[in-house]
Structure formats: C-alpha cells, structure tokens
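look at this one:
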Amino acid sequence: MHANVHAADVQDRDGGALVMATLFGVFPFLLKLYAGGGYQGLQFRGAVKKVLANVNVEIVKRSD
C-alpha cells in the first residue's frame, strides 16, 4: 500500500498522478490500474503513461 498526503485543494486526478510518480520503478510488473470516476480524463491517463508506460488505466463506474 502507498499513500501521498497533499493539500485539500488538489484534485483527485492531480494527486493520483503524484502518487503514481512515486511508484516509478517500485512496481514494474503493474499492468492495470483500476480507478474511480474522479480520475477520469486525459490529464490523469497522460500522467500515468509518463511514469508507467505499460499501465492501462480502467475507470470503474458506480453501479445503480
């Protein structure tokens, strides 16, 4: 498990990108990342790709 503490005004997707950056080299076998709707968008996907090029981000939607 890994965490990164930041200010409350940081968006989830931006904070998530910071967490992923700290994982560089620690989990080279990581291939799939499941994330909630707060991480949806090209900005987070792009940040993850810069740090962990082989990781596929899948956004998990809430069921009704």
